[in-house]
Amino acid sequence: MNRIANRGSLPVSGMWRGASLFLMLLLVAGTANAVTCTSVASQDWNNRNSWSGCNNSQPPTGATVVISSGTTITADSNTNTVADITINAGGTLVGQNNRTISLSGNFTNNGTFTASNGTVALVGTAMQTISGTITFANLTLNNAAGVTISGNVTVTGAFNPGTTPLVITAGSTLTINGVVYTGPCSGVYGAGFCSAPSVASINLASPNPTAGNTAVSWTVVFSQSVTGVDITDFVLVQSGGVGGASITSVTGSGTTYTVTASTGSGTGSLGLNLVDNDTIVNASGTPLGGVGLGNGNFTGQVYTVSACSPPANIPSSVIVSCVCDNFGRTNLNPSPIFNSNWIVSSSDGLGILPYINATSTFLRLTENTNNNAKAATVPGIFPAAGNYISVEFKHYAYNGSGADGVAVTLSDYSVPATPGAFGGSLGYAQRTIAGGGGSDVSGFAGGWIGVALDEYGNYQNPTEGRVGGPGFIAESVGVRGSGSGLTGYNWIGGTATLNPIVDNRGSTTPKPGYSYQVIVDARNAAATAVAVNRDTGAGYTSLVNIPNIYTAATALGFTQAPVPNNWQISFTGSTGGSTNIHEIGGLRICAQTVLPVTGGVASGYSAIDEAYPVAAGSTVPSYQNFQTGHIYMKLPATPFKLWVAALSNTGISSGYSAASAKYAQVKLVDNTVMAGANPVCGLDSARTCNSACTGQPAVETGATQIVTFTKGGPGAALSPSFTLNSSWKNLVAVIQECTSASCNAFTSTAAACSADSLSVRPTSFASVTSAAATNTGTSGTPTLTAGSALFDLTATTTGVAGFASGYTGTPKINSASVQPASPATVAGMLAGAFSAAISGTPSSTASGTSFTYNEVGGFYLLGPDFAVPRIPGVYDDNWTATDSDPTKNDCNSGTTAAAYSNTKDVSGKYGCNFGITANTAVFGRFVPDHFDTAVLPVAGVPMPCPSGQVCPTLYNGFVYAGQAFTTQVIARNQAGFTTQNYAGGYAKAVTLSAWDALGSTVLQNPAGGTLNNPAVSAASFAAGVATTNIPTYTFATAATVPTNIYLRAVDTDNVTSLRVTNPTTTSVEGGVKVASGRIKVSNAYGSELLPLTLMATAQYYTGTGWLNSTTDSVTKLASINAGYSVGTGTSNVTVSPATKVLSLGSLTINLGAPGAAGTVILAPTIDPASPGNPPFAVGTGTIIPGTATFGVYKSKNSYIYRRESY
In 562-715, where do the E strands start and end? Predict the structure, then answer.
């Protein structure tokens, strides 16, 4: 404000003297002078006496504020936007009442700041700083220049930083609702703020092994959304014979990127590593791993690169990886297949194991000597169930006398490869004494199928203990099925003698070199197909085709074993009395999934509900279920399990634990914990887990289990039982691979989150109680007024003894379940709401303290009756929102019994909702909020208000003192509606009283009158209304000025028509004007030869005299005879109206000429049938008789009668 101050004289001289003075002062606004306001007293911020240096006011906009030692300033209202605020040591600033302290400068706390429930807002345009140790209830930032945190700052309530840049200095912390951010860091608050991003995983995204000169990809997942990811951030690691590989592209955004590379040429391995150069940053500008080169480095997964490619006859819909071994080296081991070793054995005692022959460069299985029995197993694991596999090799049998042959075996990987009987069984089938074999020799251990290239001809011959077959067929291919020990290995298919034949015994060099292909298509494991093809130079032709090995086996009278989880592939060679050299070359094995002998490495994990069924022909659910499956809602203290799978890029990693058992920890973590504006675990279809999520603890002791993937298992397993004893709104399963069964440490394999979250709800509300509404009877206390009295309700959940409930939801009330308690018959409306529940041990309680009920009596809440249908009176259908979401349907929602069921349905789902399971106790007793009274017009009473009088609005009429009038008493709730249940036992005796004005407490029984018959019995109430027609109001003196009275009703529960708030304007109390009344009959005299007329008139007293009651057309007179004796004559009487009911206050009485002189005294009475029966009577001054005199003069001329005669 600009002011003009004059402490001396302001002279006006010259031409202005003696003239009117017009003075114009131009005040030019400028910048307000900055002031420093220092507190000098412990008072309110807005109290000018709290400050010095403040120009006798509160701190103005732009002021510097100092809270000095020994003073406490309370900001009880919003402040101006000051500049700096400094709280000195010993000083205290208090923010409260949801008020806002605004400043454009720095906030420095060296004393005490008590946040209460207030807000501090930093709204400057230059960089602001918060210094010291400060706890804010609510903090708002709106400064594009930024805010620096220098100290330890905590926000316990709402934090609204907008897009204000934040800088947390080294050694400082900012704690937001329990989440601590430690400096130095900077950026805009949000997901990933003040935490360095990291690499969660670099996993293979293409089939492995792969071929040279092809494109492969890796999926790179970061813990946070990042930018700046490009080719320069990655390096390829080439080993073995791989060379020329290069990164071709990097695509993606957010947390997930794809790196694509060319595999180059040669065989070996190709890996991808990320090399941190600080160019990858999150939204806050924090580089990968934090500031510093190399601290975000990560080693990714590795491809095996093979020079072989798939054969042309692989179905186009099948994507395979291939491994090859051409044996063109000196030593058999290590093999180029996974750089691992062939497993070789011999049972012939010759001391020669399978080896690579230096001359032929092929894998030699037998020499051309007698009684060779040798085997070689491929170094690899080949997933079986759900997989397609093709085994190709070149076969050489030469330089001998034509025996016995070679078999290729696919056996169960979980069973160590041990060859079967040699000779005619070719290392696959059994031999038995009983069958004439001379000794008992078990068949191939774990053998599922054995395909033999039989030169001699006994493989298809049911001799020596072999089961089934057409007989001796030389130079043929035969197929035998599964078996164990001396049982099984049944013949299931084969060829006749082939042309060209299998061997070339006369050749001294490797011959004939035909290619053979064995295909097992177990993509539909329940209908596995087996085929054997041969290429003699013009392409593959079919030798054996078994479309469904199970139906083929059934047709032959035996049962084929189910496809195992994983294959191992072995070659066996045999000679007997006849010989050949047996060799293989050009081995190529192609399958949808191929794994090294060390087992699979999971590219991810998935957890789904135990309710998912196993896939056909498998022991675990399908891959699609693990990709998209959910975890259903659970109940406390109810054990449940989860299916957990190790996944590859194309399916369940069925070879994951092929080599040895593996273990994974599954823990359930709370996903309501927030990281910035989002839940800490950001779920997605890739099931990626950020470090903040994996670092969350399990919510309970029973929320962690170790899943065992048994050796040779299918890559998925059912967990041990979880048991959660508390309720949880949103849980996520975090899966992490352990180094051992005890899970004391984890491997480097990236953790995974379930793709779905789950909730756990209480089984019911055990009770609903009230501390205030405890009167279940029709009388006594406590009482609560209908629609106005606030009362409490508390819903208590069913819990598990010794455990915190965890439920913090908000119960709801089903209004349709509100029922009146007998003898009440009408249900009122229950208004109000529960607050969010508070978790306790073992139950949670949700209370509301502002409930109202708008009827009289008591009420209770019904339990569910789904046949009606009716849901529970108190329920929660929102706690399980993460599962009841219609896009998920992980529990049964709706209003049916299934939606509230604590028993699983056939699909394994519980109801989403819970509530009370039985009727509650009665809550009461509710009484009317107030009465309304009304004076009712009945049969013309009250009578219209006479002219000149002011009568009550209700009713605008009057009665005579002592005249009965009709009064109605209506029981009302707070909103003014009639309480229908105020009757019977809930109705109480009512007493009426008369008052001088509406809502008055000044004068009862005005004008010294008396209200007679004031009692209204309880029994007279019906549906909240009672009517009485006997009250009268009388005065102590017969002539009393007209008086307005207002009828007040009070019952024995002290319910009254006198309203509490503004009673003179809000009370509804019927009124009537009461007037002193009388009947006066006029006098008349005249000739006995003529009739006389008298008037009976109703009158009321005005205070100065009596006026005719011209509005009285209801009073009826009696005691008027039909005739009177007059002297010697008789006077006949007629009245008008003939009914003897006054008209406009009067009745005309006509006396006929008696013919004789005399008098008649007329003193009528009130007919008891007269409405209200006014108590008028002769002798009380309320009936004044009239006299008719016949035979007297009417004037001074002494004539009695005169007439003219013409």
Answer: 566-574, 581-591, 604-609, 642-647, 662-670, 674-675, 678-679, 704-709
